[in-house]
Amino acid sequence: MRWLLVKDLEILRRSPLLVAMLILYPIVIAALVGFALTSGPSKPRVAFLNQIPPEARTVSLGAENVDVTKEAKPLFDSIDVVRVKTRAEAIKKVKDGDVLAALVIPADVTTKLQAAAAGSFEPAHIQVYYNADDPAKQAFVENTIKARLQDANAAFGKKLTSVAVDYLGLITRGGQFSLLGQSFDVLGLQRAGVILKQLQAKVPPDSKLGKQLASVVKFAGLARDNLDLSPQILDAVGSPIRVDKTVVKGGNTPLGGFAVAIAVAVTLMFITLLLAAGALALEREENTFRRLVRGLVSRTGLLVEKVGLAAACSTAVALIMLAGLSIFVTIEWGRFPLWLVAVAAGAVAFGALGVAMGALAREVRAASLLAFMASLPIAVLALVPSSAVSNTLYDVIRVVSAAFPFKPTLDALNAALNRSGGIGLPLLHLAILTVVFTVAARIAIRRFA
Amino acid sequence: MQQPAATGRGREGAAAPILQAHGLVKRFGEREALKGVSLEASPGELVAIIGPNGAGKTTLLSILAGIQPADEGQVSHGPGEIGWVPQQPALYSKLTVAENLRLFARLEHCADVEGAVGRMLDQTELGDRADDQVSELSGGNRQRVNIAIGLVAGPPILLLDEPSASLDPRQRERLWEFILALAGRGTTVVYSTHNVQEAERYAQQVVVLADGERLFAGSPEELEEQVSGDQRAPDFEAAFVRFLHVRGH
C-alpha cells in the first residue's frame, strides 16, 4: 500500500494543473474570506443638505444647549458625505447617479425639537431621496439612516429625561437655578419639610393650625419620598425596550470564526472528494485495477489507500489555509491539536464519500463531475438556518445533512476553532459516516472488475 | 454440460503439466459463461485459446489469473505464481517505463527490485525509453511494457489476453519474437487470440472454446485432421471454421 501511495503522489506531482489548484485554492479562499471579514462594506455616497441656520442649531433643554448637528455626527461615519447647497442640487445628484441618496435636514427641525422639549407632540421631519438602481445599496442606505435616526432619537430622549430628572432633583432637594442670566435659590421639599417640622414643634398639636401643619408635613414627606423614585422611572421611560441576549443553543461564535470554519470545511470537501473519487476511478481507467487486486493489494486496502491519499493532501491544504486565515482573523493556535483532529476526521469522512463516488462513477471525468455536483447541495443544505424554512422541511434537511460529512465536519471545526459546543459528537458522527461510505464503496467496487 | 474434448496426439509426449485447470464453471446470473472447462499446459509450452466472440476466452484467462473466482472447478496455481497481461495495457501513463516496472516489482515483493527492472528493460529492449512516460510510447511499446509487468516477478506461467490485437504487423512480429524467446527459456505461455493464424503458427497446443464449452485441445495439425475428411481445408482458418460448423457453432 505504501508503494501505491508513493505512486499516487508521484502522479499528482506530474499533474501541474491539479497541484496548482491544490496550492492556489486555499490561498485564494483564505484571502477572499480574510478580506471579506476584515473590510466592511464600502461607504455609500450620500448628498447632505443642512438647511438649519447656524444660529439655530442648538436646542435649549432647561439649562443645557444641545447641538443637533453634533448629535447627527455618527450618521456621517457610515456614509460618504457629499455636501450640497440646495435641495434641487441634492435631488439632481441622486437622479444622475452621482450619489445613492440625499439627506435633507429642514430649517425647522430644531424649532420642532425645541417644541417637543416643551411638550408639543409634532415630530421633527428630515427628508431622504433614494436612487433605487442598486437595490442592495439602497437597502444599505435605508438601514444605515434608519439606525442612525433611532440612535439620534434615543440620544435626544435621554437628554430630555436627564433635564426632567434635574428639575425633579431641584424640587426634591432644592438648590440653585439659572434662568435668563439670573440665579434663583429653590427651597426644595426636603428643606421645606425641615422648616415645617420646626414650626410644628412651636404650635400645639391639638390646635387647628397644628393639625393643618401636620398634614402639610406628611404631604412634604410623601412627595419627597416618591419624587426620589422618579429618576429610575424616567430612565425606564426614556429606554422603554431593552434587549437582553441569551444563547440557548450552540456557542457564542463570532461571525469571523464561523466563516473560517465554513471556508475550511468547503475546501476540505472539494479537494478530498475530487482527489479520492478521481484517484480510484483512475485505477479503472488505466486498466490497472484488475492487475492490482489479483493478489497484489486487497480491494479494501486499495480503498483505504485512496482515502488516506486524499485525506492527507486535503488536511495539509486545510492547515495551510488556516495559517493563511490567521493573518486576517484571530485563531487560537493553542488549540492546534483539536484543529488537526477535526480537519483530519472531516477529511477521512470526505475521502470515504469520495471513493464511494469514484466506485459508482468508474470514470475519472464522471467521478469528478459527480463529486463537484454533489458538493454544492451538500454544503448549502447544511447551512440552511432553522428559521428559513418550515419545521417539516427543516427536519428533512437535517436528516439529509446528517447523511453527509459536511455538517459534522463544520460542527467539529466550529468546536475546535471557536469553542462552540463539544467536539466528541461530531467526531463520532464522522467516524460512523466513514465506515458507512467505505462499506458502500467496497460494495460498489465489485462492478470495477 | 461439458462436451468431451478432442485430445491431441502432439501432447502425448509432453512433459508433466505445470498448469492444470479442471472443470471450471462460471455463471453470470442465468448465463453460464464457462461450462466445466479443463486445461493443461507443460513448461515452455505455448497454448492458444481460440474461439468465436463470447466463447469464454477472456473469462477463462481471468479465472486462471485469479481476477475472478470460478463457481466450480480448480486451478493448480495461485495468482502469485502466474503472470497476467490484460488485452488493454494496464499501466500508469503518468509514470515512466522504469517507474511502472519498479512499482509492480515492489508490489510483487521482488527480492531484487532494481535487478528485475533492469532485466525486463533488457528483455523488452526498452532500456533507452526507461525514463519516458508511458503516455509518450507507441502502442507496440506500451504492449511490451504491459507484458514486462506481467513478467517482472519471473512467473513460470504467463497469461496473455489477445496480446497482438492492437499492433501493426511489424510490432506483432517483434512481440512474437519476444514471446517465443520467453517460451524458449521455459516460461509457459497461455494466450487467447482472434487471429487463428497466430495460433497455428506459434502454439503447440490450441484450445477451442465456443459458448463456454471446450470443443478441442490439441495441436493445430490435429485440429486440421479432425475436419479434413474427404477434402482437406485449404488453410488452418478454414479448418477451424469448418470444425466449429461441424460442432454446431
Polypeptide structure, described:
Chain A is of the alpha/beta class and 449 residues long. Chain A has three domains: 45-172, abc type-2 transporter like domain (abc type-2 transporter like fold); 182-236, no CATH class; 253-447, no CATH class. In chain A, 67% of the residues lie in helices and 8% in strands. Chain A has 18 helices and eight strands. In chain A, the strands form three sheets. Chain A has a four-stranded mixed sheet with strand order 4-1-5-6, with helices on both faces. In chain A, β2 and β3 (64-67) form a beta hairpin. The longest helix of chain A has 39 residues, at 135-173. Chain A is elongated. Chain A starts with a helix and ends in a 5-residue tail after the last helix. The relative contact order of chain A is 0.09. Mean pLDDT of chain A is 80; it is low at 240-250. The two termini of chain B are 15 Å apart. In chain B, the strands form two sheets. A seven-stranded mixed sheet of chain B has the order 1-10-9-4-8-7-6, sandwiched between helices. A three-stranded antiparallel sheet of chain B has the order 3-2-5, with helices on one face. In chain B, a hairpin with a 2-residue loop joins β2 and β3 (31-41). Chain B has a domain at 6-87 and 156-246: Rossmann fold (3-Layer(aba) Sandwich). In chain B, α2 packs across α3 (113-123). Chain B has 249 residues and is an alpha/beta fold. Chain B is globular. The A-B interface holds A 3-4, 7, 10-11, 14-15, 286-288, 290-297, 449 and B 62, 65-68, 78-80, 84, 86, 88-95, 99, 103-104, 106-108, 133, 149.
Task: Please name the defining characteristics of this protein.
heterodimer, A: alpha/beta, abc type-2 transporter like fold, two-stranded antiparallel sheet, 18 helices, 8% strand, B: 249 residues, 7-stranded mixed sheet, 3-stranded antiparallel sheet, 8 helices, 10 strands, 35% helix
